[in-house]
Amino acid sequence: MKYLLLVHHNEDAFGKMSETARKKILEESVQLTHQLHTKRQYLSASPLHPASTAVIVRVREGKPFVTDGPFMETREQLAGYFLIDAKDLDEAISIAVRVPGARIGTVEIRPLIEISGLPTG
Description:
By secondary structure, the protein is α+β, with helices and mostly antiparallel strands. It has a single domain, classed as Alpha-Beta Plaits. It contains 3 helices and 6 strands, in the order βααββββαβ. It has helices spanning 11-16, 19-38, 89-96, and strands spanning 2-9, 42-47, 55-60, 63-68, 77-85, 105-111. Strands 2-5-1-6 form a 4-stranded antiparallel sheet. Strand 3 (55-60) and strand 4 form a beta hairpin. The longest helix is centred in the N-terminal third of the chain and has 20 residues, at 19-38. The mean pLDDT is 92.
């Protein structure tokens, strides 16, 4: 089953970390992707640019509205993701605890709904 691991952390706190500490987190994340790839569990992963670079798109009554965003009352922002293949939720949890971002924020685990007829990679 495919799971999306959504990595959330406080961007301000992350920005105040030393460059060395931020690089170490990235290096650990890359190492994890290679470990998952070896076990055929890796599908995709990427950090995200800060939330300040995001835009929000809404369509209301057929009209598109594009605004800066997101504007949420939260201390943690979506920082990146891992898309994995795991046999069950327990295995997905065992992978999520290895995500370096879990030490400075949270990792949300969401199972994907498989829909037939979609194009594949």
